[in-house]
Please model this.
Amino acid sequence: MGVRAFTGSSSNSRAADAVSTVTPTPAAGSPAAIAGEFAAAWAKGDTKSLYDLLSTQSQGALSYPAFARTYQSFSDATTESNITVRVNSADNAHAVLAVRMETGYFGTLEYTTTLNLVSTPAGTRVDWSPSAVYPGLTEGQQFASDLQQPKRGAILDRNGNPLAIDQDVQMLGLNRAAVTDRAALSHAVESLGFDAAAVDAAFASGLGQNQLVEIGPVPSGSADAAPVVASQQPGLVLNDVTQRVHPLGAAAAQVVGYTRELTADDLAKRKGEGYAPGDRIGAMGIEAAENDVLAGKPGGKLEIVDANGNTVKTVASRPFVQGQDVWTTLDSAVLKAAQAKLGSQPGASVVLDPRTNTILAINSSPSFDPDA
Model:
């Protein structure tokens, strides 16, 4: 139904048409209303409301836990971060839903799927099948994703010595809520090579008592003893983590740089590219200038597989790019010697090979610890 309004005068016959369309609200229990409820519940992740809209026959053939797992596994496999669902059309037998998904790895996925509808004494209900989730999906099939995260490449000097490298380290942490004897725990941690200040700082953390507080990486000489000590002291937690390590420390900090965690703004800009909170990016120096080469790109495939895990269809894919090493003309020995010469005196130095004009060292004082 439309409304047309005319404005003007008898002496000036110019007119403007203004048309507005009013969409009537579907009658309760009608095909359009049930389809709308189904779309709204799906968008909210409310699987219980979805299940309640199914016909008695559909509910008899599929338990609620199995039904809920279907939608949860679909959300997990697609790396769904947001979903909108709207009704395109509805009649007594079918409703067409338009689905738009924002995903962590595969960008935006858009498709339409069909709900089969049946008339019951209670009104219209959904005669559910797996194709309601995705067109063509059948019993026994499910979505699966194969996701790949690249390892950050190393930064090397001209002789292949590492200036920055990913390294697996043992990280000792503290769960204060589980501590039964603080004095004994502190003594045990100090026996691993930590100083008392690191333990006190962990106990003084502003995080919640049940949250894990990092004490620090276990010194290499205590790697074998750490698991034993952690198992004997309630409240100590030992994890294997990958850290970015800069072996020359302050001697190469200014030129090599360091990495930082992605911020919320960074993640928003890289939405759908496979990045997550905790991922890191180059913040300055070579780490930042060569970030795209060093970091590579996350990738993966989103597939429909059968009961045996065989691929039925590839729905989406993102190319995986492994991070690459970056070789420089820098020389570790010269970097350390130049930094030692500067000492605590404020200043900077650049060392060149006069035969080739290649840069062997760039130093600045005061410097900093790039791993801090």
